Amino acid sequence: MAEEQAGFLDKFSEFSAKVGNQIHLRSLRDAFATVMPIYIMAGLAVLINNVVFPLFWPKGSTELANVQAWGAAITQGTLSVAAILLAGVIGYCFAKNKRFDNPLACVIVGISNMIIMMPQAVVGTVGNLLYATNAGDKTAETLSYALTDAAGKLNLPEGYAISGADVTGVLSFSNTGTNGLFGAIIIGLLATTLFIKVSQNDKLKVNLGEGVPPAVADSFNVMIPMLITMSVFGLVAAILKGVWSTDLMTLIALGVAAPLKGVMNAGPWAVIIIYTFANLLFCLGIHQSTISGVLAEPILTVLITENMAFFAAGQPIPADHYMNMQIINTFALIGGSGCTLMLMLDTFFFSKSETSREVAKLAILPSIFNINEPVIYGYPIVYNLPLIVPFVLVPDLFIGLTYALTCAGILAPCVVMVPWTTPVILSGFLAVGGGMNGVVAAIWQIIEIAAGMAIYLPFMKVSERAAAKALEMAED
After folding, report:
1. How far apart are CA 363 and CA 91, in angstroms?
2. Is there a contact between 434 and 422 (Cβ–Cβ < 8 Å)?
């Protein structure tokens, strides 16, 4: 029986390692880790703009609008172009993982091909019409014609209304921002994969001979593969536009992004299953991000970035965005994977093992900042059968309960991506936007700590008894 269990664990570890090391998934995980600082900066800007500034200036005032331009500018440079940045970074990370010798070219390929696949015209909201006083002179002074009169009535013939206007020569934030992240993922990976594959053909390289600056030589080496890649994507864009009057970004949003988001928000079960296997993997010595980092975190990160955009625009958070990455980081990974901060507190207050207490003294400070590798390998959690149960169970319990409390309206949805190293209580307060919502979230984290300590305590005692018994047997 023991041999069968060991064989299953070995096969499970091997399979998980293969999934985590799949080059496209690994590149996606690396890319999200690289761009994470811009999401955190956007979260802080949204929080300050919508929570801090209104404390000093009245809502609706000109002064408040002026100071909020700071956060709006940061949001525009982060969330509004998040998809473009991600497409380039995915290209770079994929090139590095493939050991391709020109990763910067892959950045260009990722970004350019994503924009190629965007619609060439977008529907813009019409405010004022601008037109030149002299139609033939583009440098002539422009006039602003209000579409509404002083009473707010449209200056249009009866029976007519304007809902928008087709605009060319622009990119829509709905494609370049958080809504376009899934498009960035798919197009960035596809374009870079094709580009690297074509670049492996030596006949397509342009050799300029010796004495040419390296940057110029590298550029000409990839010029033809780059042209071929962009031509292929351009052809696809033309076919989609000419035959079906659509574009790839729209198809991805409807056919890929929406179903994946639906899976993550069809109750907490999909997330719980993924993190159950991820934390079990950690108990075998393989980092949990091998599973969660490639299967769940990219989708959950997209959801929290969209929540920040909703919050910045003053819009309510839709119910299908209640489950997101911040719920995991703030409420289900207190002290790190397995919520091991509770184990450290139990060790300080109730443990009689000097060895455990010494480990806890070294590990408690990192645990406060959600870094728990010293606990995983030093306490240890790895292959410690009594502690595996709460290590896997406690995060699953908190994922389910936090999601349920959010759906019930007791907890506010997470709307700010705070750094994952933010200490407990403060992280809960900030994640939901501060104020009374933040107080309730912080209180819930305190309840979680108490509940987690209660769950960990009997398993900790069993673990200590097992360790003492093993020591006695070794001495005998």
Report:
1. 37
2. no
